[in-house]
Design a protein that fits this description.
- The complex is a heterodimer of chains A (about 375) and B (about 525).
- In chain A, about 75% of the residues lie in helices and about 0% in strands.
- Chain B has 2 domains: about 290 residues, no CATH class; about 140 residues, no CATH class.
- By secondary structure, chain B is mainly alpha-helical.
- In chain B, strand 7 and strand 8 form a beta hairpin.
- The longest helix of chain B is centred in the middle third of the chain and has 42 residues.
Chain lengths: ~375, ~525
Amino acid sequence: MIGLYILGAMLLFGAFKVLRGVYYIRKAKRLEAEVAALEGRTVASDGRTAAAKAEKKAQQAAAVVALGFVPEAELDTDNARPVPAGRKAALDAVRAGDWEAGAAYVEACGTDWEERWQRVRALAEVAAEDDAWLLAWRAARPADPTAALVNADTSVAVAWNVRGSLTAEHTTREQFRIFHELLVKAQADAHEAQRLAGPADPVPYMIEQPVAQGLGYAHEQYGELWAQITRRDPKVLTAHTSALQYWCAKWRGSHELALAFARESAASGKPGELLSLLPLTAYFEQKVRESDLRSETFFKEPEVVAAVEAALGDLAAADPDDWRTVRLRHLLAYFLFWQDREAEAVEHFRHIDGYIGALPWSYAPRSAYVYARDWTVRKVTPGL
Amino acid sequence: MGASLRAVRALVLLAGFYLLGVFLLAALVGVDFAVVTWLHGPVAFKIIIVSVVLAVPIVRGLFMLRTPKGEPPAGIPVTEAQEPLLWRTVREIAQQVGTRAPDEIVLIDEVNAAVAEDARMLGLRPGTRRLYLGLPLMTGLDEMQLRAVLAHEMGHYANFDTRLTPLIARGRAQLIRTIGHFHERADNKVAKERARQEKRDEKRVAKGKGAKGVDTSGQGATYRAMAKIYMAYGNFYMRATRTAGRRQELAADLASVRVAGRDSAASALREINALDSAHDFYMSSYATLGVGAGLLPRPGEVFGGLRKLLDARSEDLDDLRRDLSTEPASPYDSHPPLAERVARIEALPDDGRGGQAARPALELLSDAGAALAALEQVVLTPEALALKRVDWEDLVHQSMTQYVGQGAEEIREAFAAEGAGPGLPALLDAIDADPAVRWRIADRFPKSEEAAAATGRTAREFARPAVRRALNQLVTVELTGRGAARWQLSWSDSAALSYPADGFEEELRLALDAAVADLPDTEPLRKLVLAP
């Protein structure tokens, strides 16, 4: 009998448990449905907010474009300025196998070393893809100093293509191995170009600069290379900016060394020679490297403002037709934007607009440029 | 706590291990009894089934604890008549340590020495005691170092503190093995389930359905659950007896110092650290190098060659002798980390036995060569014993030639598919006729992601080393085939090709560079390799 009571009690208890379980399950389901409905509403409202924001952004962007600026999608991220007419023709000719047109194109600029370097680099970029014409050129004129230059610069470009532009941990051992082998070969090619070159030509030594960066020349060894360049021409702008890269913290130097080099370069130049580009570049590289620096304050430091003033003076003294002024304007637009000097910045944005393959935009081309440009334009245009 | 009290506590803890099993079983029986009494029908039946399933690993656990013996290592037993000097040495050590000498000595193929005992009545009564002594271990040690190792092993069975010490030693070993068995079984079950699910996926894929993926998360759960209970107890046991365990290890190390001297005891531990890696490396890179080509070294050399490696790479091994592990070998291991043991020994006062001269340990055997040869007969599989035996020099040359030749087959196929080949002369002709054939051939070799994505001259720079390697391999086949080059054995380095003349290697390097240059020149390679 007692057993039956206990069994009855257990059954009742069991029934209670089961019913309570059913009740809780139903309640949970109801609550879940409510949560889902609420979530749905949140997503919808988020979507509406985002859509409204996007629409406003698009309207703002369209307003800037309406003032004559280039839409974001149409910005050229490969070139710092419109490609000169002669260059396009020469490159098309060599692609078609006419290496003599390429040779004539480079030789036409004579002893304008900056221009010579630019033209050699343009040909080398073509050769890095397809070099049948270059091989033909070299075979036809083995002692041609220009062919040797293009060949050496192609070796440099190909080495960097193999290396890729990713950070070390995303670069394979195969890539590093071949990169290093190719740099050694590029070094030999550069030395050959130096042997064949005319005594006044610094370009074969400028081609060795990125090799030095990649192979990690010691400071002393780099100093010797630098002396070879400056002995031939102390003021080639690209030679200076290339050397600055070597002295940066990300390669073989430090912020201090980079800034010291940049200041020395700037001091050596007369107004109009555009060497004031270097301190701006050094500050920019430091800002990129040190993530704890805030643009809002860093670019307003007195020494940075002074560097910008010097650059503005340099630019005013320069030949307005000198294409190298474009490189300075890119950096000035950026620095003036961060210094809240929109009225001055917008002038440079007008000059450079459309072609943004230059510092300081190269790290995040379109978004960084459009953000700075549109902000500046809105600030100086009443009613926008 | 006195020594005997500690021993009694350890004994109680060991007994608790059995009690744990009995208690768990009793709990299950109790549940079943309650179920049968109060419930009827299918529910009761199900509960009983579950309880039986749960009981299985417990019963197994008890069973395993009783007989945790694994397979004894294969080896050659040696009698006192066969190896009088070795036996005398072992007896001496046993006496110095204060324990019974082993009843049998078995020579094995490991870098290890171990004393095992067939315990009876849960280890309360002594059984046959066996000394397993590794010939590779003897190969690497001198006599005094070997004495140190043996003294340590026998020291575990010595009767220093209490008569119960051997029992504790055995109990601890059994506990470690039991937990290991649980994990092994759980892992096996997971592996089986994985294999089953992978097979199922293969079938599904073959039928055109998507793979379901492999999920073994629930597998072996009962074993793991049981292992957890036992491990929790095992951890408790270990914690409770850790000081005793460490004391024992210290005592065993002190025994080896007493027997062999401080410096020999310490250097033996350092040597074994180096010897372990050296032996693994020797077995994979030397002793079995020729297996793929059907070759083994001469009888006695399969294990005997280790000595040559140790002599040649002595300096490389110094790092391993110097840098000892500071981690314990396993969480259940009572051995303190090697670095700590050595430091403790070396901190002892100088006993003036540092400079003692000692002969190689192998000289304790009446004929080490014969023993090494005899061991092969016991340890190697019949398939291995059927392999051809050759001298080391021939072994390296013949097997390397065969392996490179096999690799070259694939290269020849790639060349032939592009109409270049099959031989080296035909290939060089094809390159002269159309230099671009080289890059097409490279497309047939496996490529990295980056190489596959590259275009233009960049793609060529990825291909160039691959073509150069392939050419070099064909050159090697050509030269070794004509007997102009020979793979050279080196005990201190990897096998290298020895070329016909000094400076040949440099010339070959330049010739290969010329053959893969943008404007190829195959002439140097022809002159160097194909000229009669």
